[in-house]
Amino acid sequence: MGNRTATRPSRFGGASLPLKVAVVGAAVALSTGAGLVAYFVSGLSLPIGIGLALVVSATVGIVVWRRLDPPTRAVARRRAWVGLWAGIAATVAYDVTRFAVVAIFGLHVRPYAAIPLFGQLLIDVPADTRAALVVGLLYHVANGTCFAIAYTLLAGTRGVVAGIVFALVLEAFMLTFYPGWLNVQAIGEFFSMTILGHVAYGATLGGLSRRLLASPPAATSEVAP
Questions:
Q1: For the chain, domain boundaries
Q2: pLDDT band at 215, cuts 50/70/90?
C-alpha cells in the first residue's frame, strides 16, 4: 500500500511536509498550552489537562509517524529541531521585550506574575516558594518552545509576518484568560506589554525559523528519533 500521509503537502509549511504530519505534530507540541486552556475553561488540574492532551495527541502522532517514509521523517525532525532553537530565542525576545516595556514606560503591571502561579498549579505549593518559581519558569519556557515547534511544523518557512500572526493568536488566548486569572487592574498597560512581547516573539520565531530552514540541513543539528 502507498504511504497516503506523504501525498498531501501542507499549504502552510511548504511542499516538503504533509499537512497531516504538520497538524498532528503541532497538536502534540501544543499539549502544554491545551492543558492550561482546559484549566481555565473547566477547572481541570493543569497536570491532568496536559497529560490528557499529550496522551491523545501523542497516540495519534505515533500512528501517523509509523506510516511515514524516512525522508518525510527527516523533514519533520528537522523542523521540530529548528522550532526548538527558534523557540528558545523567541521566548527570550518575548521576556526581554515585556521587561523593557514595563521599565521604559513605567507601567504598573508585573511582566512575570504568571510564572510562580504556573508552578503552584503544577506541583501544588505556595506561589511564593522557590519551587513554584523554578517549576513555573520551566513550564513557561516549555510553552514558548513547544508553541514554536508547532509553528515551525505548520508554517516554518513563511517568515516574519506569519510568525507575528501566529503570536497574535497566542495573544488573543492570553487576553481571554489572563486578566481575570491574574486580577489585572490596568488592562491597557497589560495589553501594551503583552502585545509588544508577542510581536517580538513572533518576529523572532518567524524570521529565525525561516532562515534556519532555508540553510542546508548540515547547518542545523538533527536528533534521531
A1: 8-214
A2: confident
Position 218 pLDDT exceeds 60: no
- Which three three-digit cell numbers place residue 129? 516558594
- C-alpha to C-alpha distance for 69 and 221, rounded to whole angstroms: 20
Strand partners, 14: 10
Report DSSP letters for 134-166, one per residue. HHHHHHHHHHHHHHHHHHHHHHTTS-HHHHHHH
Over 46-74, what HEC string results? HHHHHHHHHHHHHHHHHHHHHCCCHHHHH
Phi and psi torsions of 135, nearest 5°: -65, -40
Ramachandran class of 124: left when φ > 0, alpha when ψ lies in -120 to 50, beta otherwise: left
State the Cα–Cα distance between residues 4 and 28, nearest whole angstrom.
Answer: 20
Query: 510564572: which residue's cell?
Result: 115
H helix or E strand, kind and range, residue 15: strand 14-18
119's grid cell = 508552578
Please check whether residue 179 is in contact with residue 40, taking contact to mean a CB–CB distance below 8 angstroms.
Answer: no
Could you report the per-residue pLDDT of 98-128, keeping only the tens digit for each?
999 999 999 999 999 999 999 999 999 999 9
Question: What is the reported pLDDT for 223?
Answer: 42
Cell 521540530 belongs to residue: 80
Q: Take residue 199 and report the three cell numbers written for it.
A: 510581536
